[in-house]
Write a structure and sequence with these properties.
SH3 type barrels, seven-stranded antiparallel beta sheet, Ribosome maturation factor RimP, RimP_N, ribosome biogenesis
């Protein structure tokens, strides 16, 4: 099965339970490096969260690890109950429980249809703050944010005043989304999270040339007196890792019954 056919199958099988939970499909990522990885992203059908949404989870990932000789579930991270005096607010992200329910239904449906012949890993996740973008339409709310675009082939700026050759990776402020592409104003990001404009004109990138586009959540690290800037929790470019609760489902040759284990994972992408 091709990657595109697998994406369509995953969406078709997952949509009924996703819609029943009041969520939407954000996208499906397929990675084939050794074991096939199928990662389904789900989100709430509201305006996307921003940096100011401090109470929003950055990314909740749940799937199931299955082993033929196991049959129990455990979790080291129980969810806190809301206060009786708290004011109800609209959800800003899918919950771990919702991701868990989607994962169970999707894993069973994939097994029934025998959609993936080889061993694979299934994850159900929220997009997080640093989120993958699967269409030009999804990019529109993030105009003004930093976006990284990894391309299938190098693309050069069409501005004759531009210096430097074609690039396979462009990083910049998203300034416009057009019918067939988008415009980035190139920037550099320091290890401390400082965003600085490059001495380079804006570049129009066709969506057909994009292999992977990501909205980057830039965290400006506070500098303590007497301390050098920098920190272990940040990437080299100052971007903040989109972590959260995570579990992984491994399936092999149709063997998909067994134990679900949830844990916290805060590793960088």
């Amino acid at each position: 099965m091709t990657d595109q056919a697998l994406r369509e199958t995953v969406i078709r099988l997952a949509q009924p339970v996703i819609h029943s939970l009041g969520l939407i499909v954000w996208g499906v990522e397929i990675a084939r490096a050794g074991r096939t990885l199928v990662r389904l992203f789900v989100d709430v059908p509201t305006a996307p969260q921003t940096e100011e949404s401090g109470d929003a989870p950055e990314g909740a990932i749940f799937s199931a690890i299955t082993e033929a000789d196991s049959g129990s579930a455990e979790s080291d991270h129980p969810q806190g109950e809301p206060s009786a005096t708290s004011t109800p607010v609209a959800p800003t992200s899918a919950t771990i429980e919702q991701c868990e329910e989607i994962s169970r239904h999707l894993a069973l449906a994939l097994e029934v249809e025998d959609s993936i012949a080889e061993a694979y890993v299934l994850e159900v996740s929220t997009p997080g703050l640093s989120r993958l973008l699967f269409s030009l339409e999804q990019m529109v709310p993030y105009v003004g944010d930093v976006v990284e675009a990894r391309l299938l082939t190098p693309v050069a700026s069409t501005d004759p005043a531009a210096h430097g050759g074609p690039r396979r990776v462009w990083r910049g402020i998203l300034t416009a989304v057009e019918e067939e592409g988008f415009v980035l104003a190139p920037v550099t990001i320091s290890p401390d999270g400082e965003v600085e404009e490059e001495n380079h004109p804006s570049v129009l990138l066709p969506w057909s040339a994009v292999r992977r586009a990501t909205r980057m959540y830039i965290f400006k690290q506070p500098q303590k007196p007497g301390k050098k800037p920098g920190g272990k929790a940040r990437g080299k470019d100052g971007s903040k890792a989109s972590g959260g609760q995570k579990a992984t489902k491994k399936a092999k040759s149709g063997k998909k019954t067994g134990k679900a284990i949830a844990d916290n994972d805060h590793t960088a992408n």
